[in-house]
Design goal:
With 290 residues, the protein is α/β, with parallel strands linked by helices. Helices cover 38% and strands 17% of the residues. The protein binds NADPH dihydro-nicotinamide-adenine-dinucleotide phosphate and dtdp-4-keto-L-rhamnose (TDO).
């Protein structure tokens, strides 16, 4: 086993919980760290953890993900998404630990009209995006670090809070909801991302830091996603398409943030499910849970 002990930070988040759910299939020791064990807003807590523990691989799922709140809590977002990532990266580099980290489609400005390639220039348009971008740069500029930044988008799962769960709640409360149809991207089911990583763990061995993109296949707007959620959950709520101008939010979102996944599919010979197929799978788990 290449990596006998794997640290998963942000263990109580959506992606962290998918890793937990899928980890039973793998024969390694997983250390699931929530914020009580490692607090990313307190750098000392990161250092203390590594002074007491030895791990072979870091999968960093911890992040500040409240996009609108980040406009007001810029410092906290930067601390968790950039400063803590920089420290984690430097510890990983010093100890020769491979580091898997996640970033977002929100590092792009959304002015594109073809899927964003891994080397497209970043230009975030909100504070969350800026903090994630700073985290990427910290990793890329850490000497002797081996690792990967996997940018993903519109993450949802049966765990935690996400767009899927908000739509189901609103759909059950209202006869009609308005959802933006001029922001285009692709949803990502956490199980698909976590499965990809766990199944390929032995291949994460290169030197230096690479960037990859991962989301489900297909493109949609938030309106298409919401419409699909109502349809596949049999919720009789009408979803009305609206322009972003009719749904003002504190943080701007990119209008187009589809990720080009060709590199990850080629390098790992991996096929990724279409977002509608994964949505069906997730809805089955959600129904079992409730
Ligand atoms: N959610 C999305 O739509 C997208 C997410 N991503 C990226 O994917 C990764 C995983 O995201 P996802 O699982 O969806 O995010 P979640 O918000 O579901 O989970 C984030 C985790 O980070 C933890 N966390 C927050 N603050 C701290 C802190 N101070 N110390 C330690 N842990 C902390 C949270 O803890 P607690 O549970 O206690 O709050 C939570 O467990 C992140 O890097 C995110 O930026 C990328 C694109 C889209
Ligand atoms: C609830 C709601 C949202 N919307 C719009 C607002 C927004 O443009 C879009 C998505 O809303 P949310 O606030 O749920 O999603 P948001 O927090 O913007 O999601 C983002 O989270 C971060 C962490 C990421 O990294 C991104 O990839 C992306 O997933 O849907 C509606 O149009 N109608 C509604 O009723």
């Amino acid at each position: 086993m290449k990596y006998p002990t794997i640290l998963i930070t942000g263990a109580s988040g959506q992606l962290g919980k998918s890793f937990n759910k899928l980890s039973i299939r793998y024969n390694c020791e997983f250390v699931f760290a929530d914020r009580l064990l490692i607090d990313f807003s307190n750098l000392q807590s990161i250092t203390e953890f590594f002074n007491k523990n030895t791990v072979d691989l870091i999968i960093n799922c911890a992040a500040y993900t409240a996009v609108d709140k980040a406009e007001l809590e810029q410092e906290l977002a930067m601390k968790i998404n950039a400063e803590a990532v920089a420290l984690l990266a430097s510890i990983a580099a010093q100890r020769g630990i491979f580091m898997i980290h996640f970033s977002t489609d929100y590092v792009f400005d959304g002015k594109g009209y073809v899927p964003y390639s891994i080397d497209h220039s970043t230009y975030p348009i909100n504070q969350y995006g800026r903090s994630k971008c700073a985290g990427e740069l910290a990793m890329l500029s850490t000497d002797a670090l081996d690792g990967v930044i996997i940018r993903t988008s519109w993450v949802y799962s049966e765990f935690g809070n996400n767009f899927l769960k908000t739509m189901i709640r609103l759909g059950n409360e209202r006869k009609e909801i308005n959802v933006i149809n001029d922001q285009i991207g692709s949803p990502t089911y956490t199980d698909d991302l976590a499965t990809f990583i766990l199944a390929n763990i032995q291949h994460f061995t290169w030197q230096g830091v690479r960037i990859y993109h991962f989301s489900n296949e297909g493109a949609c707007s938030w309106y298409d996603f919401a419409h699909g959620i109502m349809e596949l959950s049999n919720i009789p709520c009408t979803v009305k398409p609206i322009p972003s101008s009719q749904y003002p939010t504190p943080a701007k979102r990119p209008n187009y943030s589809l990720l080009d996944k060709s590199k990850i599919k080629e390098d790992f010979n991996w096929s990724i499910p279409h977002w509608r197929d994964s949505l069906k799978v997730c809805l089955t788990f959600l129904t079992q849970k409730n």
